[in-house]
Specification:
mainly alpha
């Protein structure tokens, strides 16, 4: 029997973690302000898809195994940190550019894969998943409860990314971005750099 109260608590816990500002949410907001709602929604769908992978890892029990495997986790963190540093470089170049922001991609599907890769690059996501699932699941819960809890967290992830896309693509936000583009891109570059360096640093600490 699935406990709806526990299910709601799990979804709320995951949404609170997901909605907090971080590289994924900030980059989604920047894309929404710079390139518009459609690009941001596609990017957000990619972010959500990347989160699904880590959710399945956590729900299957592999999350605990991954956390206990120091060398595997170290490699994943180094690779993820390197990707975040590359994104910081790209955002930094955009901030240094005096003219307009880069032209939007004609192939919208690339936004989706950018979002997927960004969230796949952060193995710490599995910790957030495990924390959220532990709120509403106990040792007595069966397969159906695990599936239900994972499903509501997936929906919460999609809702969070869609919310960022919708809020930051309104006209006023896009106008503000055009006026402050270099500052915003610089902030995003700094955030990516800090996150990337932090991820690499954590790879070498037990």
């Amino acid at each position: 029997m699935i406990d709806l109260t526990s299910l709601a608590l799990t979804a709320l816990a995951f949404f609170v973690v997901a909605v907090s500002p971080g590289p994924a949410n900030v980059s989604n907001a920047a894309i929404a302000m710079s390139f518009g709602r459609k690009s941001s929604l596609i990017y957000g769908a990619g972010l959500s898809t990347g989160l699904i992978f880590w959710g399945l890892v956590a729900a299957s029990g592999m999350g605990a195994v991954l956390q206990s495997s120091f060398y595997v986790l170290m490699v994943l963190k180094v690779l993820g940190g390197a990707y975040l540093l590359w994104l910081a470089w790209q955002s930094g170049k955009s901030a240094a550019r005096a003219g307009k922001a880069e032209v939007a991609m004609t192939n919208q599907g690339r936004w989706f894969w950018r979002g997927v890769v960004l969230n796949l690059s952060n193995p710490k996501s599995v910790i957030a998943w495990m924390a959220a699932l532990s709120v509403g699941l106990g040792p007595e819960d069966g397969f159906a409860s695990v599936v239900a809890a994972t499903s509501v967290c997936i929906l919460a992830g999609f809702a969070n990314n869609a919310l960022y896309s919708l809020l930051f693509s309104v006209g006023g936000m896009m106008t503000a971005y055009r006026k402050c583009r270099r500052w915003i891109d610089g902030f995003v570059a700094g955030l990516f750099a800090v996150a990337g360096l932090g991820l690499i640093k954590s790879a070498f600490s037990r």
